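Folding Problem: From Residues to Backbone Shape
Fields: amino acid sequence; protein backbone structure tokens
RECORD BEGINS BELOW THIS LINE
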Amino acid sequence: MFWDNVSLPNAWAIVTLTGLLFILSRYVSPSVESLEPPLLRPRVPLVGHIISMFSEGGGFYVRLFKERRMPICALPMLNGKVYIINSPDLIQSALKNNDISFDPFLVEFSKAMWGLSQNAGDLISDKEYLKTGLSIIQSTLMGEPLHRLNLSALTRLMTYLNPIRPGEELDAPDVFIWLRDILTDATATALFGAKNPLTVDKAHLMWTFDKQSMFVALGVPSFITKKAINARREINNLLLTYYESGSELKDGVSDIIRDRVKFLRSTGFTDDDLAHMETLLPWVGVTNTAPTLFWLFVHVLTNPHYLSRVRTEIEEIIIITNGSDGKTATFDVRKLEKCCPFLHACYQESLRHYLHSIGNRRVMEDTKVQDAQGRSYLLKKGFNIQWAPSVTHFIDEIWGPDANTFKPERFLDVSVQDEKKRRGSQLSFGGGKHLCPGRKFAFTEILGFVGVVALSFEAEGLSLPKSRDPGVGVGPRMPDWGGFDPGFRLRRREGWEDVTWVFQE
């Protein structure tokens, strides 16, 4: 037993400390009004929920929901509290409420996350900055600017596939790392153009930073986050050279980079400020997208039934032409959403199963949220709200008794009744006015790449691993290989040996 290994003085210290925490909690625990969500106290007063949140990651929210099945609750933490919403109705009510905002997190986390100077930190605290900055992101990730970005990313990805000749194989010792790194390179190239400083050999820096990014954002001491800080410094140096040389003005640079740099310079950002702040764009562009690409890739390519259906869909929307050097396959990726329902369904099921970024908002004024039955709950000013897709994505009453099964067919021929039940429960890309503006870019980049590989290549030695919770602050579930080999080989499919892939302008 645990106590058998604890010395008497230490045992008394533990008992005494626990007793003090219980006594202290009576005086410093937050009060809860009758109309607020019920208080769910931790086993260890004051700090129990904090310890569990960091030790269990996303599993913390799942455990709480399974134990209590509460639509909403308040968790006491030190002398404050956090509201946890599990009901999709209440989440949607919160997203529509003007007194509940994500903006404070944009400012508070950005300063530490990107290591901003005092100058940059002051500038992004301005409400007009937030409004204009987000407007630029949204406007440059739709219509023709989005299509150009898609074409650039996919064209770059093809530089890893088109050179594979008949009789040759691409041998990747780890499929996740291979996909992660080439996607990082392709996304960064689409953003920064031909002078992209985050080339494939530098891609690992973004992922080293990402592992501890939440701790960096929370201001955890640098001796704990040393690896992340060092990786971020290297990225900053690469971007500083890019901005000092005016590379954002070159041909092929995305609208989002060019327009944001123009705006940020006009507000007083220096080259060094840009090198820190704009690390944001490649980071948000790949850290959720790459794991989602991985899961879709392995599910489609390890399941013969899925693979056959995807091949049929993709073959129907490409045009093959003959030339002196072989065949050219022209792919119009604008047809993906409407003409590839099964591939789209596989993508949606991958999001449901594996992309579980915690939603965060702050209550700006005392307000109420209400569910579909008319029950309302008071939320007090100054406290944070969280919700977990790892809960809402697997509620049996919404997704059925097979909610834990990977089943793309659940997204095909959905009834009006089921669609209504699901509305607001799938939260991989957030919601409300902060619904991820890059979701359509991710959709095309992921489905376009998987479609090309599925139709014209054979994957050998590829395994479908289990998934693991990545820990606090990280959204996507990661592969847990166990006894499986993470490597695989890619070779041309018979009949597609001399095909070069291009994309419709």
About this structure: Residues 8-28 form the longest helix (21 residues). The radius of gyration is 24 Å.
